[in-house]
Amino acid sequence: MTNRVPEPSLTVDELAARAGVTVRTVRFYSTRGLLPPPVIGPRRVGHYGPEHLSRLALIEELQHQGMTLSAIERYLDALPDDLSAHDLAIHRALVATWAPDSAEEASREELEKRAGRALSDTDLRRLAAMNVIAPGGGAGGFRVDLSLLRLGVALLDVPISHETILAARRVMLEHARATAHELTRLFRDEVWGPFTEGEDDPERVESMKALSAHMQPMVVQALVTAFQRSLREELKAAFTGGE
C-alpha cells in the first residue's frame, strides 16, 4: 500500500494561525525564499501543506537559537529540495538539541498564539498533565515548555485516550533515560577517561566538552533513525504477522 502525501489544503490565513505567526510573516518568508511557493488552486487561491507548517516551525526554532535570517537562508538552502514534513520535523528536533531546555512565561492569549489555535480548559488540563505547561508567575499565566508545545498541541487531536498517551510517555521516558545513561557511561569510560587520564590540561577538558556538544545532535539523529526502523518493524510484526 502506497502512502498518500496530504494535499496542500491550508490557506495563508490558516497556515499563519496554525504556525502562530502573522500572514505578513508568511508572505515575508516567501519573498525571502524561506518557504516554497503554495499550490495555486481555483480562483488563484494559494494552498499550503504540512511541509510549509514544518518549515515554519524549523525557522522558528533556528531563530530561537539566535540565527539571523541570512544564516537561516543559508541553512535552508543546504537542505535537499524534496524534504517531507516529517524530515523537516526531525531537523527541527535536532536543532532543538543544540541548546539547553527552554521555557517561557506566557499569558493564555500568547499561549494560544504559539499553539496556533484556541485552547479550551480541557485542552489546558491535558497539556498540563503532559508537562507541556504549568502555572506561571502571573495571574492566569503559564510556564510553557517550548520544546514540547507543538507536539502536545498535535496530541490534543489524536483519537487516543489521554491515559494511553501518558502511558506511552512514561514508556518513552524510561527507555530514553536508560539509553542516555548507557551512552553517557560508554562515552565517559571509553572516550573521556582515556583522553584525560594522567592529564590536568584545561584546554583538553574544554576540547572534550566541545566534542561532547558536537556529538549530541548526531547521537539524537542516530537514535531517531534507529527508533523509526524498530517501530516500523514492530508495527509490521504486530499487525501483519511479520509478513
Description:
With about 240 residues, the protein is mainly alpha-helical. The protein has three domains: about 80 residues, Multidrug-efflux Transporter Regulator, Chain: A, Domain 2; about 55 residues, no CATH class; about 80 residues, no CATH class. It is about 65% helix and about 5% strand. It has ten helices and five strands; from the N terminus they run ααββαααβααββααα. The strands form two sheets. Strands 3-5-4 form a three-stranded antiparallel β-sheet. A hairpin with a 5-residue loop joins strand 1 and strand 2. The longest helix has about 40 residues. The chain is globular and about 65 Å long. The chain starts with 11 loop residues before the first helix and ends with a helix.
